[in-house]
Design brief:
- There is one protein chain.
- The chain has a domain of 74 residues.
- The chain is built from 14 helices and 11 strands.
- Helix 8 links the parallel strand 5 and strand 6.
- It starts with a helix and ends in a 7-residue tail after the last helix.
């Protein structure tokens, strides 16, 4: 009788399987619309909402975890590209979630409340494939770092530790700063980067004062082959190539590069177009992984959710490359069997 009493006095939680990161990532991979902890608990009933929340509070997903998973999957190329950019995870209606701050969103073209994520993408132009291999969360109140600090840190880590083959860095105009240009050149790499229309340059070899790039005169030859300029704030005597890309009657982009051998505006347009793969990455993570959907307030849970969402995107992309399908096909076709079954035997009848 005593043994039976002891047996039944064991807390039920001791009998439940321990939750692991894999289970949470599997949930984000499969769920279609709702990505909350409550929804997970309702459909995976061996763990309660509190158990899942406690796990997310205790786990610690790091950028190095992403690299450990992806490093064996990347197909390097001696002509590889490294892409840097940031996106804002929309938390505009969240008032008490940690890491949320007001910042500019390129998606909405306005200032919103959200969590900034700075990402590093590797592109193989020979296979037309790309992988996310590093990221940082923008939390200046917590670590005192700017987005530029994060990019410089990821670039240094890529060169020193990851040791991937690449020749060129592509980034947004936000990162067109002297310190980053110098870091890239010191590493012996090339960069192509847009600059704002009021960025001060000199195309007269010190004969005139610097002026905004939009105020420069362009000959037909310069329009086709670019022009040599000095970018203000760069060391005296330093030279770059500047290209003017007329994309539409309403939009003209100005691209600076340290690739002094480049003499084709059309080639520059193709190279700069590679940068849109990181925009594709941002779109896919937001639409398919629920990266924006975590409602928990704690910073650690938000960090873990975002890290897991990036691991899930990597899993989707790996399977997409292996099967020749898109990540959208892989995600949405999970409902195919359900639709077939419901159309044959609907649970709710139309009447």
């Amino acid at each position: 009788m005593q043994a039976r009493i002891l047996h039944w006095s064991i807390p039920i939680t001791k009998l439940l399987p321990k939750m692991h990161r894999r289970e949470y990532c599997q949930y984000l991979l499969l769920t279609q619309i709702n990505h909350t902890v409550t929804y997970f608990a309702e459909h995976r009933q061996i763990w309660s909402h509190d158990t899942i929340r406690d796990f997310l509070k205790e786990d610690e997903v790091k950028p190095s975890d992403l690299w450990q998973r992806v490093k064996g999957e990347i197909i390097p190329s001696p002509f590889g590209y490294i892409l840097f950019d940031d996106t804002v995870l929309d938390k505009n209606y969240s008032k008490k979630i940690s890491l949320v701050r007001r910042q500019w969103s390129g998606n909405t073209k306005s200032i919103i409340r959200g969590i900034g994520v700075v990402s590093c993408i590797y592109v193989n132009p020979e296979t037309n494939q790309f992988w996310v291999m590093d990221y940082r969360l923008y939390d200046p109140d917590g670590d005192g770092k700017t987005k530029i600090d994060h990019v410089e840190e990821m670039l240094a880590h890529t060169i020193t530790y990851k040791r991937l083959d690449f020749t060129t860095v592509l980034m947004d105009s936000w990162y067109a700063v002297t310190s980053l240009f110098k870091q890239i050149e010191k590493a012996g790499k090339l960069f192509y980067c847009p600059v704002k229309s009021d960025r001060l340059v000199d195309d007269t070899n010190d004969a005139e004062a610097h002026k905004g790039v939009a105020k420069l005169a362009w000959t037909t030859n310069e329009q086709e082959h670019g022009k040599i300029v000095h970018l203000k704030t760069m060391p005296k005597g330093h030279r770059m190539k500047l290209f003017r890309l007329v994309l539409s009657p309403e939009r003209t982009d100005y691209i600076v590069t340290n690739d002094m051998a480049q003499d084709s505006t059309n080639a520059v347009k193709e190279i700069v177009g590679i940068r849109w793969k990181i925009e594709q990455f941002f779109r896919e993570t937001k639409q398919l992984t629920g990266i924006e959907r975590c409602q928990c307030r704690l910073a650690r849970i938000q960090r873990n959710h975002i890290g897991c969402a990036l691991l899930v995107w990597n899993c989707l992309k790996k399977n997409a490359y292996a099967t020749g399908k898109t990540v959208y096909e892989l995600k949405y076709r999970l409902l195919d069997d359900y639709m077939k079954q419901q159309l044959a035997h609907p649970t709710i009848l139309f009447s």
